[in-house]
């Protein structure tokens, strides 16, 4: 299960749409490691001067790795995080997360990060089973 959904939120979802604020709060509470990583990379991006910021430290546990994978593999969760933080997230391997300005999806830096070449260059033997 990707998210621990409180009964009240599930009831509201069954009756109709749920707003981003409630959805993102559920993500934050359900996937604390993923939230921490995304929050940190966004803070680094906002505080830096580069075209993007990234987080490439492997998760400390398989549970944490699973949280990051669930957060970034789900269109709904990733989209909610992107809207909440006002960034475009990119993901490589099982733990490299980057934050870009939404307008950067047409930039060379973004295209390089999400390209097959970028993925191949970010490989190493220790990442094969991540």
Tell me about this structure.
With 130 residues, the protein is mainly alpha-helical. It has one domain. The protein has a 3-stranded antiparallel β-sheet. Helix 3 packs across helix 4. The two termini are 20 Å apart. The mean pLDDT is 89.
What secondary-structure arrangement, pairings included, does this model have?
Layout: H1 7-15, H2 20-30, H3 32-47, E1 52-55, H4 62-73, H5 75-85, E2 88-92, E3 96-100, H6 108-113, H7 116-121
Antiparallel strand pairs: 1-3, 2-3
Helix pairs in contact: 2-5, 3-4
Output mean pLDDT.
Answer: 89
Beta-sheet strand percentage? 5-15%
> What's the total helix number?
7
Taken together, the total number of domains comes to 1
Distance between the termini: 20 Å
Rg over CA atoms, rounded to whole Å, is 15 Å
Which structural class is indicated by helix and strand composition? Answer: mainly alpha
Largest sheet descriptor: 3 strands, antiparallel
Q: Order of strands in the sheet with the most strands?
A: 1-3-2
β-strand number:
3
Order of helices and strands: HHHEHHEEHH
What's the overall geometry? globular
Query: Which spans of ≥5 residues are poorly predicted at pLDDT below 50?
Result: none
Helix content: 40-55%
